[in-house]
Specification:
Elements: H1 7-15, H2 32-42, E1 54-59, H3 62-90, H4 93-108, E2 114-121, H5 130-137, H6 141-153, E3 156-158, H7 168-175, E4 181-183, E5 187-191
Antiparallel strand pairs: 1-2, 2-4, 2-5, 3-5
Helix pairs in contact: 2-6, 3-4, 3-7
The structure holds flavin mononucleotide.
The site of flavin mononucleotide (FMN) has 11 residues, from helix 4.
Length: about 210
């Protein structure tokens, strides 16, 4: 097969872009330009109706990061130990490790040098139908994932998190985010310690793929 890109590089990038928490380098500053480069690349992502209603809030101010971490842990302190205990009970080793790592992030979030909050214009209406919800969230998460891939290719790591959204209104007030924008997550961003991340164990694609009918 002849491919227009070096598949050994692109496939490795796509299959090793992990949620990075323990291996974030909390001491190395992150340049503003590298964040802007990754946002620039994310802007090539698709959106429904070519609306591109994206805005990104990049937080480096230590006081604001501390306040965001407090909002995050207001829910994280409750939810994460419960989810961890449930995974232990189910004997699900991979998920136990994820929640161990998520609790670690919950504890160190204030110290991660950059918090990035992707925002989309508008808000999913209450009782939105599936098409509306899919087209709104589907118009921002491709950009968020492109941002994360671009970070990884430059030696930085991140995790898509959503826990602070239980305190979304407080975060909006802290950061001056206008009422007509919805936050969709918070990505703690830092250079990574090393760059050798592994493939995750996933089921065979044949087991989740249905050709022509389910
Ligand atoms: C919609 C969504 C919400 C998530 N929320 C959180 C979160 O609040 N906190 C966290 O530590 N990780 C969060 N994650 C990261 C997942 O835990 C992680 O992607 C998953 O365990 C798989 O790990 P991997 O990305 O390294 O393959 C979230 C991921 C997604 C896609």
């Amino acid at each position: 097969m002849s491919a227009p890109f070096d598949l050994s590089v692109t496939d490795e990038l796509l299959s090793t872009t992990r949620a990075v928490r323990r291996r974030l380098d909390l001491d190395r500053p992150v340049e503003r330009d590298v964040i802007l480069d990754c946002i620039r690349l994310s802007q090539q992502a698709p959106t429904g109706g070519n609306q591109q209603g994206w805005s990104w809030v990049v937080v480096t101010d230590p006081g604001k990061r501390k306040a965001l971490a407090e909002l995050y842990s207001a829910s994280g302190d409750v939810y994460l130990p419960q989810a961890h205990a449930a995974a232990v009970e189910q004997g699900n080793g991979q998920t136990v490790r994820v929640y161990d790592s998520a609790m670690f992030l919950n504890d160190i979030l204030a110290d991660v040098p950059v918090h990035v909050i992707p925002c989309m214009q508008g808000r999913i209406p209450e009782n939105a139908d599936n098409a509306t919800a899919a087209s709104m969230y589907g118009s921002i998460f491709p950009a968020v994932w492109s941002f994360q891939i671009a970070l990884r290719s430059r030696g930085l790591g991140s995790t898509l998190t959503t826990i602070h959204l239980f305190q979304e209104a407080e975060a909006a007030k802290l950061l001056g985010i206008p009422d007509d924008f919805s936050q969709v997550g918070l990505l703690p961003v830092a250079y990574t310690k090393g760059s050798d991340f592994k493939h995750a164990k996933r089921p065979d694609p044949e087991s989740i793929t249905h050709f022509d009918s389910w």
